[in-house]
Amino acid sequence: MGFLDLPNVISEGDLVMVRLGKSQFKPVTMQSGETLHTRYGSYPHNDMIGKPYGSQIPAMGDKGFVHVLAPTPELWTLSLPHRTQIVYTPDASYIVQRLEIRPGSKVIEAGTGSGSFTHALGRTVGTSGDVWTFEFHEVRWEAAKVELEQHGYKDIVHSFYRDVCSDGFQPASGVHAVFLDLPKPWLAIPSLPQYLELGGISRICCFSPCVEQVIETIKTLKECSWTQIETVEVSCREWIVRKEMRRTLEDVLKRQESFRERRSAIQQRKRKLEELEKQDDDDDSSVVGSPPNKDDIPYVDLYNPWGKGERIVKGDDRFQWDIFSAGERDIKSHTSFLTFAVLAPAPPKMKT
Ligand SMILES: C[S@@+](CC[C@H](N)C(=O)[O-])C[C@H]1O[C@@H](n2cnc3c(N)ncnc32)[C@H](O)[C@@H]1O
User: Fold this and answer.
1) Do residues 52 and 165 share a domain?
2) Binding positions for S-adenosyl-L-methionine (predicted)?
3) What's the total number of domains in the chain?
4) Is 100 a domain residue?
5) Distance of CA 126 from the midpoint of ligand 1 (Å)
């Protein structure tokens, strides 16, 4: 099974995305007799083989569980072995749309890096399209090529070991979208026109973390007649929805009071422990009276409105629950600047 043909049921040899927690995935190839060991328990592959994708799998003799999901470029991006910085989904989705990449598109990509964006490109262009991807680091090139083939992209993604700045993008042809994630894209831009679709409109995106790279890229794009040049940065903020227990005012006040008591008890404890340490350091046996003992310094338990040791599971129907939603505090931003441009065919010469 590859990323492009997704059956409903897990089979031997399938690559399964095991969801261990929020945004935490482990790609695992199913082999009967093998077991996945995690800090959330152990999961024999045999318990997963034959189950529908999306199933919840209980841990062997334990309370934990995982979900087994079908592989997608988005999940691969979250779990792939990092050999380089990678393009993440908020940027990838924006780039695909701005470059107008669709089923059947012909696309150039350099460098391949860890192959994160290559997976997104391959799925979008599909079996009627082509992605020519180039990488000049041999080990990275080989690793990404093997992964892409294993993931079912063999006939879609054509992978080359090449320095595109000195040696160009052969054998790409008829291309109308170019993505350059290179330290010096301006060295690769001048050779591009020979690989682009004749008479067509071509689009480019250069992905650069530093503004100095952007300046140099824009200079070269202008010199090479690219137009509609625009640099953007993608910021992404997730909205989180959670259940919160409806509490009485009395509970809230008691809990606040208990927090205050606990904080002052912790400070007192710290001071006493420091005193104890100091006494140990300058112990000249001349101190009169019994020194404080560590065990005499008390802890303060937090006030628990449901009784000591009682834990409440979210949704417990003995209580009332409200749904809250809020934006993540941190906006996930600056991975890179994205510089877009368009190359239109030259207008026909007017007869005089
Ligand atoms: C930041 S990584 C690309 C990451 C990739 N976009 C991803 O999503 O996984 C940049 C890659 O470009 C490669 N590279 C740099 N200069 C190159 C060149 N002139 N020709 C080909 N590859 C090059 C580097 O070896 C590196 O692997």
Assistant:
1) no
2) 135, 155, 181
3) 2
4) yes
5) 23
* Span from the CA of 110 to the centroid of ligand 1 (angstroms): 6
Residue with tokens 């250069």: 206
Q: Which domain holds residue 59?
A: 15-71
DSSP per-residue letters across 44-72: EGGGTTTSBTT-EEE-TTSS-EEEEE---
In a domain, 21, yes or no: yes
Is 114 near ligand 1, meaning CB less than 6 Å away?
A: yes
Q: Which of 88, 87, 160, 150 is nearest to 130 (CA)?
A: 160
Distance set, CA 312 to CA 14, 309, 318, 325 (Å): 39, 10, 10, 21
Q: Is any ligand 1 atom within 6 A of the Cβ of residue 115? A: yes
Atom of ligand 1 nearest to the CA of 83: 27
User: How many angstroms separate the CA atoms of 143 and 120, rounded?
Assistant: 17
For residues 81 and 194, membership in a common domain is answered with yes
Is the distance from the beta carbon of residue 86 to the nearest atom of ligand 1 less than 6 Å? yes
pLDDT in tens, 12-69: 999 999 999 888 999 999 999 999 999 889 999 999 999 999 999 999 987 789 999 9
pLDDT digits (tens, 9 = 90+) for 279-318: 777 665 544 455 556 666 666 677 787 887 788 888 899 8
